[in-house]
User: What shape does this take?
Amino acid sequence: MSINRRLFTDNDFQEALDKQLKLRVFKDDHMIENGGVVVRFDDNTVVIQSSVSDVSYYSRAECEIFELRKR
Assistant: This one.
C-alpha cells in the first residue's frame, strides 16, 4: 500500500529534491505524472524529471504534488 504526502512548502520541495523522492502530480483531479523526481523548483514552478529525456514543468498553483511512499 502507498502513502501520499502532499508537498506544500519550499522545505517540502527541498526535502524531495535532496532525497530524490518519487512524486505523483495531479491536475484537475487527474494524475498527470507518476514516479518522477524534483530537479528544480521556485515560487511558481516545479521541474520534475521522469527519465533522461522527459522533463516537465508544473505550476505550483495549478497542480497538487505528492510524495509517494511505499509501506
